[in-house]
Specification:
173 residues; mainly alpha; 3-stranded antiparallel sheet; 3 strands; rod-shaped
């Protein structure tokens, strides 16, 4: 607003000058406060940027550490898996090696044990078959089969002798 200063009295001029000075002081104070706030804002932005950079650095380090842990874990699991495979293979081989011989092998051994004797008792057969790692749970069945087949003769009371078929093979060989 414009005021005609020629129509004003000295008191009014003085009051007008004082108001103008007060406005200029208030303006200066506001400007200083504004500058201080702008500076404070810049400082906050710098602090915030530093804090974010620190957090980003921590995140990067944690990602790196995580990757290393994943690699170590995978290597450890692979080593355990290889050990499991090795032990499983060894167990299968041991099971195969410890598996009892088949009944035909047991029957052949019985025939071999009776070939050079006039007779052999069932208890002696059991003892010798166990010593050679054969399963004797099916021994009565195998003995019956060999008697029916003519390879053994039942001499009674659990005694067996070489049968006619076995004697013919021994004489021919």
């Amino acid at each position: 607003m414009q005021v005609d200063i020629t129509a004003l009295s000295s008191d009014e001029l003085f009051e007008l000058a004082r108001q103008k000075k007060q406005h200029e002081e208030e303006f200066g104070t506001r400007r200083i406060a504004l500058e201080e706030l702008k500076e404070r804002r810049r400082q906050l932005e710098i602090e915030h940027a530093k804090a974010l950079a620190g957090v980003d650095q921590s995140i990067s380090e944690l990602h790196l550490k995580r990757g290393q842990l994943v690699i170590k874990h995978k290597a450890a699991v692979d080593a355990v898996d290889q050990e499991i495979v090795r032990l499983t293979r060894e167990a299968k081989n041991a099971t195969a090696a410890a598996a009892p011989p088949n009944p035909n092998a047991t029957a052949d051994l019985i025939c071999a044990l009776t070939a050079g004797r006039p007779y052999i008792s069932e208890s002696l057969l059991k003892e010798q078959l166990r010593a050679k790692g054969h399963d004797i749970s099916r021994l009565p069945r195998i003995l019956d089969l060999l008697v029916r087949d003519g390879r053994l003769l039942n001499k009674g009371s659990g005694n067996y002798a070489a049968g006619k078929r076995l004697q013919k093979k021994s004489m021919a060989g």
